[in-house]
Write a structure and sequence with these properties.
Belongs to the ParB family. This is ParB/RepB/Spo0J family partition protein. Pfam families: HTH_ParB (PF17762), ParB_C (PF23552), ParB_N (PF02195). The protein has about 290 residues and is of the alpha/beta class. Helices cover about 45% and strands about 15% of the residues. It has 12 helices and 7 strands. A 5-stranded mixed β-sheet has the order 1-5-3-4-2. Strands 6-7 form a two-stranded antiparallel sheet. A hairpin with a 2-residue loop joins β3 and β4. α8 packs parallel to α10.
Length: about 290
């Protein structure tokens, strides 16, 4: 079982055993040719324009913040990048020969955690990369969702919701990776059990730029039992303000929301928030900051 160093405390917490006082670490220039990326890097896509911008900055001003590396096992003259792969890539694009670096000791476990933490702090992982990162931590380190939650400082429902995305068809996961679908749309699609219908609805959501509410309605229509008259979800006279509020709540909760005005008492009504599973309910309660533990 992996140790319990808290990833949520930051990258520095993972090097507590190195016993190096702040400001006393040696920064050296390492040849780019001797460096290789972190083998546990969860990010598979690097924004091209962002890399170009960083490349121009490095050409003009150099690299201000050293990358962190460790010596490669079995090869004392080669190094693996623990943190700073974007700076490494941009430096190569800028035709630099060396890059400032700090050498530290790190286990495979620490490298894996650092790779996930660095990207989560930057918030530039796409949803599938983030989900796969959590899954890798659980698999490689043999830890539970609850332990991942504690290490990363994320709620357990948050971790669970991302892991559920890995059950989507490959075609839909690719759409999510390319930002053709939002996280809210993907969570809504999880309620569709038939694979072909799910893919069809995902493509429709993208092609018709459906909101989460519209997609949820399309799913209801597709899965509705034939010859069964459905009760209208809201009055046809619903005010445009209530419709706008529905859309806002729909985006916030990532599920179907219905606001129905009372016919008997002005200014009253009911608010319905749909959920598809116990995990989905826990996710909504987490958003509402309701915790019964």
């Amino acid at each position: 079982m992996a140790n319990n160093k808290g990833l949520g405390r930051g990258i520095e917490a993972l090097f507590a055993d190195n016993d190096v006082e702040e400001g006393q670490e040696e920064v050296i220039d390492l040849s780019l040719a001797k460096l290789s990326p972190n083998p546990f890097q969860p990010r598979t896509h690097f924004d091209t324009q962002a890399l170009k911008d960083l490349t121009l900055s490095i050409k003009k001003s150099g690299v201000f913040q050293p990358i962190i590396v460790r010596k490669q096992s079995g090869n004392e003259d080669s190094y693996e990048i623990l943190a700073g792969e974007r700076r490494f890539r941009a430096s190569r694009m800028a035709n630099k020969k060396t890059i400032p670096a700090i050498i530290r000791d790190a286990s495979d476990e620490q490298m894996m955690e650092i790779a996930v933490l660095e990207n989560l702090q930057r918030e530039d992982l796409n949803p599938i990369e983030e989900a796969e990162a959590y899954n890798t931590l659980m698999t490689k380190l043999d830890i539970t969702q609850a332990e991942v939650s504690k290490r990363l400082g994320k709620s357990r429902p948050y971790i669970a919701n991302y892991l559920r995305l890995l059950g989507l068809p490959t075609e839909v996961k690719d759409m999510l990776t390319k930002n053709q679908l939002s996280m809210g749309q993907a969570r809504t699609l999880l309620s569709v059990k038939d694979k072909q219908n799910l893919i069809k609805l995902a493509k429709r959501a993208y092609n018709e730029t459906l909101t989460v509410r519209q997609l949820s309605k399309a799913i209801d229509e597709l899965t509705a039992k034939p010859k069964k008259k459905r009760k209208p979800r809201r009055s046809t006279k619903q005010s445009p303000f209530l419709r706008a509020y529905e859309d806002e709540l729909q985006d916030k909760f990532g599920t179907n929301v219905n606001i129905a005005s009372s016919r008997s008492k002005k200014g009253s009504g009911k608010l319905e928030i749909n959920y598809t599973s116990d995990e989905d309910l826990n996710r909504i309660l987490q958003i509402l900051d309701i915790n019964l533990d």
